[in-house]
């Protein structure tokens, strides 16, 4: 099961607004909802990785049925009804604007749950990255090599999750395709002529659809794992500016990356299954999936960026290994030489340091 499969269109019906008012929840209920949302996000990522290896495998099915859906059943009526309303609105959406409105309402109604999902997604990638980095350091690798190893781990995880998410979507849609529709495809007819029963035909076509859906989302997911929050977690070059500026930069990159990632995953997952079920519209839910991904990615990137170590302009002013201009002035053999060194330091390319106390001198 993918990162957002629990939020894809379901069968909530056209009368979601007539659902009775949910029972109130206390602080314990709110905490329970939040923990389950974060845990399900992690479990969904693990299921996606499993689907990338073998689509529709027992592990991913176990995670879907016995962890994610079981967890959702234990959430409060408020979360359940909000999810049902979102599913109904996404199913009834006539285009991108309707999907955007549905996502906006869902996020506004469940801000804490969305943040919990974001935290779960960050933990799913960040913890393995730092674990691999610790192993690299213990093996004697330097800072740059460790950063490269952690970046590679982030890219690998991102690719596997996105590709596996698309694969799981494609496989599941083939399993749900009515038999009459499925048997209209030449591939299904060929397998039937070879003596395969319905289950074997569904498994084979589901696997083919999953493999066809994977390549592009895998590449996009791997690319997303090299930028934004993952780049900072891997120890990449610090960002310039204050905490707010760093947070805004990373939020923009992470949110945009997640939009592309989730939109592509949704599209190619459905496109893979549409090969055997022409009633499937590959574009259905693409905008909604992208915006929901952005809603999770932006706060994650914002927090990681704001908490990251900023770039030191004073350190950048002197290239690594270059003589310290202050020390050169202090160690000059004469006053004339000191003046020459000071003039060279302040008139060359190493003079971006802003003057201190300029206002007082004026």
The H/E string reads: HHHHHHHHHHHHHHHHH
- SS field, number of helical segments: 17
Low-pLDDT parts are 1-16, 358-362
Distance between the termini: 65 Å
Query: Compute the gyration radius: what is it?
Result: 26 Å
Largest sheet: none
Give an account of the 3D structure.
- The protein is mostly helical and 362 residues long.
- The chain is built from 17 helices and no strands.
- The longest helix has 34 residues, at 143-176.
- Residues 1-16 and 358-362 have low confidence and may be disordered.
SSE layout:
Layout: H1 27-53, H2 58-73, H3 77-92, H4 96-109, H5 111-138, H6 143-176, H7 179-182, H8 186-193, H9 198-213, H10 215-224, H11 228-233, H12 243-274, H13 286-307, H14 313-317, H15 325-330, H16 335-347, H17 358-361
Helix pairs in contact: 1-2, 1-5, 1-6, 3-4, 4-13, 5-6, 5-13, 6-9, 6-10, 6-12, 8-9, 9-12, 10-12, 12-13
List key phrases describing it.
disordered N terminus; single chain; mainly alpha; 362 residues; disordered C terminus
How would you summarize this macromolecular structure in one to three sentences?
With 362 residues, this protein is mainly α.
């Amino acid at each position: 099961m993918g990162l957002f499969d629990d939020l894809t269109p379901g069968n909530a019906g056209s009368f979601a607004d007539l659902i009775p008012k949910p029972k109130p929840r206390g602080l314990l209920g709110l905490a329970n909802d939040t923990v389950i949302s974060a845990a399900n996000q992690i479990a969904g990522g693990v299921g996606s990785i499993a689907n990338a290896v073998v689509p529709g495998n027992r592990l991913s099915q176990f995670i879907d049925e016995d962890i994610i859906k079981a967890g959702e059943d234990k959430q409060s009526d408020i979360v359940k009804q909000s999810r049902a309303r979102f599913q109904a609105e996404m199913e009834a959406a006539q285009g991108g604007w309707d999907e955007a409105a549905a996502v906006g309402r869902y996020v506004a109604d469940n801000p804490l749950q969305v943040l919990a999902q974001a935290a779960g997604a960050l933990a799913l990638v960040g913890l393995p990255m730092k674990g691999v980095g610790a192993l690299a350091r213990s093996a004697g690798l330097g800072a740059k090599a460790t950063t490269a190893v952690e970046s590679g781990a982030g890219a690998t995880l991102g690719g596997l999750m996105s590709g596996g998410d698309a694969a799981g979507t494609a496989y599941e849609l083939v399993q749900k395709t009515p038999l009459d529709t499925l048997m209209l495809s030449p591939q299904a007819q060929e397998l039937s002529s070879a003596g395969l029963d319905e289950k074997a035909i569904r498994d084979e076509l589901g696997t083919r659809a999953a493999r066809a859906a994977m390549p592009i989302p895998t590449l996009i997911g791997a690319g997303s794992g090299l930028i934004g929050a993952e780049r900072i977690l891997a120890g990449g070059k610090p960002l310039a500016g204050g905490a707010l500026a760093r947070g805004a930069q990373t939020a923009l990159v992470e949110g945009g990356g997640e939009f592309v990632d989730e939109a592509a995953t949704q599209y190619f997952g459905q496109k893979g299954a549409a090969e055997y079920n022409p009633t499937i519209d590959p574009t259905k839910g693409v905008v909604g999936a992208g915006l929901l991904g952005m809603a999770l990615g932006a706060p994650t990137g914002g927090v990681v960026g704001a908490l990251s170590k900023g770039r030191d302009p004073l350190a950048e002013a002197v290239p690594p290994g270059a003589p310290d201009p202050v020390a050169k002035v202090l160690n000059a053999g004469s006053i004339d030489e000191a003046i020459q060194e000071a003039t060279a330091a302040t008139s060359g390319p190493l003079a971006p340091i802003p003057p201190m106390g300029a206002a007082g001198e004026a």
